Amino acid sequence: MTDFFAGAPDAAPCTGFTANPITRDSERQDANKLAAAVADPTARFLLFVGADLRLPAVPDRGDVATPYFDIAEAEALGADPADTILLGHHNTIPVLAARLSAPTAPDPQNPATYRAGQYREAEEGVIDLRSLAMFGMLSAEDLGIVGHAGGLMNWHRGHGHCARCGAPTRIEQGGYRRNCDTCGRHHFPRTDPVVIMLAIDGERCVLGRQPRFVTDMYSCLAGFVEPGETIEGAVRRELAEESGLQIGRVRYHSSQPWPFPHSLMIGCHAEAVSTEIDFDHEELEDCRWFSREEARSMLDRNHADGLFTPPPMAIAHQLLRHWIDNA
Amino acid sequence: MTDFFAGAPDAAPCTGFTANPITRDSERQDANKLAAAVADPTARFLLFVGADLRLPAVPDRGDVATPYFDIAEAEALGADPADTILLGHHNTIPVLAARLSAPTAPDPQNPATYRAGQYREAEEGVIDLRSLAMFGMLSAEDLGIVGHAGGLMNWHRGHGHCARCGAPTRIEQGGYRRNCDTCGRHHFPRTDPVVIMLAIDGERCVLGRQPRFVTDMYSCLAGFVEPGETIEGAVRRELAEESGLQIGRVRYHSSQPWPFPHSLMIGCHAEAVSTEIDFDHEELEDCRWFSREEARSMLDRNHADGLFTPPPMAIAHQLLRHWIDNA
Known about the structure:
2 copies of one chain form a homodimer.
Chain A: H1 31-39, E1 44-49, E2 52-54, H2 71-76, E3 85-90, E4 93-100, E5 126-128, H3 129-134, H4 140-158, E6 169-172, E7 177-180, E8 186-187, E9 192-201, E10 204-209, E11 221-224, H5 231-243, E12 247-258, E13 263-272, E14 286-291, H6 292-299, H7 315-326
Parallel strand pairs in A: 1-4, 9-13
Antiparallel strand pairs in A: 1-2, 2-5, 3-4, 6-7, 7-8, 9-10, 9-11, 10-14, 12-13
Helix pairs in contact in A: 6-7
């Protein structure tokens, strides 16, 4: 008897944002449960400044931080209980998120806070989520919780009005819904599916560089799933548009919530059935074939010219690793 | 040498809405290209009344219809060129969609138009997309195009205002974006990822009945992916919430765009590691184990008690079929 579930791996344990232990019960949340959670002395608060997270203390590199404040700390920092959402419970502990209006966010235009190996402690203990993930400053479970909170807070931040009638909306269901009292519409958090894929031709694969990437980094190609597409159709269209390659079979590998601002990365391997790359010079600075050995040296960060790939927390890394180790 | 892409099937050809041949070029669409497409004498128009499609002629059951009007017909019926979107091109032919404000939509509260075997021709040739898909009235490619249009039109219909500032938005990029001229925000079409899954324990699987289902129909369980979840995490959470089962491995099968209103169905098989079902009586009317033989008879519509599953156009059917034929 064959094993029907053979070859069904989850995301690797080190893939960022995937080890989220929160029990949501999102459909059963309401204002009473939110109030009870806020009043629970064991409650833990995540505090956001814009899209960034405020940490109780920012450790030196290599240490693991805690992202949580208690209610007294949260209130002292200016968290507004009326603008607080309940993510759910971790075991029995309520986990909440609130926004601060402090002016101490790091400058997102400053590449220093986003560049591997060059993290510098942000003023007032505020750090962007991407750096937090890249530098392994949180446990895998806490990073999952922070990603969950970040995606939801990003959605609330951009959806204070009703997309149907334009009136202001208000938080409902502990933060898992916004209601419009004017036209009655219920709005649910948005999650944008994105395909990210490694195109393969035998012993070589396709990697590209976006202009915004840090110098010498190459990654898998990616793009949003569009209306009316399957996952496989989106993989084929994106690779055709960005690399000019034609694709045969597509195999799903794993997925990753990606809170920038609220995406779901759907990782796939794609079988190239043409070989000439004609890449999109608006989207990409370079896009070319890499041999398996060259890709391995980039993953392992010992490439002769210093080229490298994203770190293990990125699903692009895991797609490459899986192919290199299993093809 | 092993075949790295072994076991990477696409959606079955009969899965509804998946055979969409449109070339979008959505990022390169603009008002000029839209105007050129409208002026192209070969252009084809899909016309919507609310969420429903107006057909040039509604054939008797079993025949295949065309969903397209030409520009003269579209204008005669009241299509507004200023409210028209460009889906893309099918080969060289522009395919557009517009909305009519006719009062002849079928009543969505009337189950007759949704019930298998009981379709009755709607007045004025207007039919809901679900019935259109269920009754195989269009070719697979045209159904894919109609689903694409339906999802996009549903999004436009619910997003006439800016979710950030509340001001009215306008169509851009041929219909693949809405712009807010007040706060400058660009809004892109929303696609909601939904997991739909067949839980399996050896020779039996779990099917459930929602109260809104037609009598005697059972299907796979399903639910929206929530913020901060992987696909696999969503499968485990939904099965825990709806059936009380604990799940081990999850294996992705295939996907399906589902324009009700604009979802992406992500079909998976799930390995049950507990056996006692304690189902959610708010969401489900029944939920229980079915042997493989019983499920096969429901798929083949020869079950002793008349129970049945959704038709081949539904991804739930394909998840069952794959397990029954391959486990």
